[in-house]
Design brief:
mainly alpha
């Protein structure tokens, strides 16, 4: 489980912090490294920020980033 935690928190989170704003045209972003506690996240792991955007919880962002890399791996394995 330690390796999965590292993948989720470092690789997945970093990927999500980079990809979410690009793919959503700056409407969705990941929670900052130092959270500012502007409110509680809902049960799906996001909350609305004050700028008509959505902030995704760090753990959920990590899973989103990890899902991206898993999809890339599957595509590469299918094409090879």
């Amino acid at each position: 489980m330690f390796i999965l935690d590292i993948l989720t928190e470092i690789v997945g989170y970093s990927t999500a912090r980079f990809l979410l704003p690009i793919l959503s045209l700056q409407r969705v972003h990941a929670e900052p490294v130092r959270p500012n506690n502007k409110g509680q996240f809902n049960w799906m792991g996001y909350r609305f920020d004050g700028n008509n955007g959505i902030e995704v919880e760090a753990t959920m962002a990590g899973w989103i980033g990890l899902a991206f890399w898993t999809a890339i791996l599957i595509v590469v394995l299918i094409l090879v």
